[in-house]
Amino acid sequence: METAVVDRPKPTPKPKWLRVKLPTGKKYTELRGLVDKYDLHTICTSGSCPNMGECWTEGTATFMILGNICTRSCGFCGVKTGRPETVDWAEPEKVARSIKLMEIKHAVITSVDRDDLKDMGSIIWAETVKAIRRMNPETTLETLIPDFQGITKHIDRIIDVHPEVVSHNMETVKRLTREVRIQAKYERSLDVLRYLKERGITRTKSGIMLGLGETETEVIQTLEDLRKVGLDIVTIGQYLQPSKKHLQVKEFITPEQFKKYEEIGLEMGFRHVESGALVRSSYKAQKHLT
Questions:
Q1: How many C-beta atoms surround the C-beta of residue 49 within 10 A?
Q2: How many CB atoms lie within 10 A of CB 183?
Q3: pLDDT in tens, 191-245
Q4: How many whole angstroms separate alpha carbon 246 and alpha carbon 261?
Q5: Fewer CB atoms inside 10 Å of the end CB: C or N, the chain?
């Protein structure tokens, strides 16, 4: 009896506009040396971000708190899923020290989802912001937060420490949310962003990835939904498959299409629109303070 052969779709080859220049420059080299010497944890390095050299040269870096194991299993994300480690209550001071050593002017803080904790990790979030403020009073902050399951008392802890920018990513269009963000909900993410704006956050921000099978109409609808909840800043980038276990790239979006979305977003009234193949959530983050 012959074994059936399953034909899997071959990955779409990457186009030339996705080629990344290796980070260079004196500032980058100095910071890389500090990161290695003191074992500092940045998403920039662990996520092999294509914009690392550019951001570090401008004094911006992204740090992930609450461990590197997530309680959710999103189809696009390269972070490990499973039982997270015990909360490190010394972490806020460690992150603040890292920012001081690296002389970071604008820090982006993000985290895994911690649905295993009663407070969803929101207390460590707030303590981290406070520690950074104490040790680095001139450093501005963006907090790229999870949805905290939409529980407002947890979101309030972020609002109460007043980051300059509060961000929460939609990641994809409504139709694809269940497939791409298994334990997340499109409307819940919109509600989080609406609540942040209603509670007085001056700059709210979100990001979406393209190339997962969404249509232009769906992308525009997502942008409209974000504007309806008062969002100020949106980032639009190309999804890239972290491993063979993750969702495949359905399409590589052209630079022209990214430019079109940027123009549409600016016409809608967003304060900033970063749209391009290599754009990531924290790309040009320091510019979003204006």
A1: 23
A2: 14
A3: 999 999 999 999 999 999 999 999 999 999 999 999 999 999 999 999 887 777 7
A4: 26
A5: N
